[in-house]
Amino acid sequence: MANLLEEIQESVINGQAPKVKELTQKALDQGMEPQTILNEGLIPAMSTVGEKFQKGEFFISEMMISARAMYAGLNLVKPLLLSQKTESKGKAVVATVQGDLHDIGKNLVCMMLEGGGYEVVDLGVNVTPDKFVEAVKEHQPNFVMMSALLTTTMSSMEKTIKALMENGLREQVKIGVGGAPVTQRYADSIGADFYAADAGEAVSKANLLLNLAAK
Ligand code: B1M
Questions:
Q1: Which of 2, 29, 66, 198 has its CB 3.0 to 4.6 Å from that of 49, i.e. a possible disulfide?
Q2: Residue nearest to atom 53 of ligand 1 (CA)
């Protein structure tokens, strides 16, 4: 089984989408948990891709090919994670912030939230503070969750919180932030309600806040 996870990682890194699909299916057929395939196969592979890019061993085109390969596996595990869905607990507006096009992490957050029983409004990538404001007015969510993968786009999170404040919407939502360069300290400094290191934590922190609000 461990070998299969290593093979999945290797195939994502090498950008072999059909092979990732085949290996993911094989792992599922052998009874491996979809969560294990995600957390120990697909996600760590993307970290290695990032390291290779940083060292100059990978170009952007190779990062994109690896991302596509990751989706070949993700698309197979997604329905299984979602089938564990329960009744709707609340609503979350989720997006990658302005200037940022990375969507794998944000999509995982959406997926885990849906699997955890939340209704999700996915605004996509490169989402401006104004679009967040419009979405909160329109959808009246319990949560706004923002993702940023670039140090240069983290400031869009603060701008979004300010825009929500200026429009009198800040108090009606709990705001969560995440993404590789984001930290608890940064979340505190911009006045977010919570930081989550991964998609699973985004769900557990949302649950915690909902429970606290109900008390
Ligand atoms: Co880019 N990229 N990229 N990239 N890319 C990074 C982020 C980078 C760290 C690579 C590196 O140098 N090592 C680096 C950023 C450096 C920095 O600012 N610190 C970088 C760069 C520089 C760039 C470009 C600027 C490159 C260029 O053009 N010169 C460019 C920017 C484009 C733009 O956004 N404007 C760019 C482009 C791309 C691609 C398009 C090629 C591709 C994205 C494809 C896509 O998303 N569809 C890409 C990729 C794939 C990466 C890496 C390799 C992988 C990102 C990823 O998907 N990780 C990345 C390196 C890395 O992160 N190690 C890199 C897997 C994903 C599951 O993790 O997104 O962290 P992550 O999400 C996690 C948690 O963070 C958390 O949960 C998720 C799952 O558990 N989480 C949240 C995320 N959002 C959350 C929100 C929450 C809670 C939790 O709300 C409550």
A1: 66
A2: 50
